[in-house]
Amino acid sequence: MSKRNKYRTIPYETIVKAVNDDSDALLEIVVHFRGFIRSKCIRGFKDEFGNEYPCVNEEMLERVEAKLITSIIKSFKPE
To answer: Which pLDDT belongs to residue 6?
Structure first.
């Protein structure tokens, strides 16, 4: 299987619905990108003994997801 066909894409109709404020379509897009967003929100946290553990920064995750939704609604213009 080629790398190009390996990943599921978001249907054009879903994108158009999301731009027009359909909450189900917006949720579908956020869920589609959630894995990528989570991987970029991993930060190292230290415990009281100085050991460092990778953890997802939930505040950053929520901010990035909110920015994605805002960008879709305000800035994205499908042709």
So the answer is: 67
Quickly count: other Cβ atoms within 10 Å of residue 25's Cβ: 20
Enter the tokens of residue 76: 């994205």
What's the pLDDT tens digit per position in 16-57?
Answer: 999 988 999 999 999 999 999 999 999 999 999 999 999 999
What is d(CA 65, CA 77) in angstroms, rounded to the nearest whole number? 19
Query: In angstroms, rounded to a whole number, what is the distance separating the alpha carbons of residues 76 and 22?
Result: 14
Distance CA 33, CA 61 (A): 11
- What six digits make up the tokens of 25? 């379509």
Strands (E), 1-79: 42-46, 52-56
Q: Tell me the two tokens of residue 23.
A: 């909450």
- Taking the model in full, what pTM does it have? 0.77
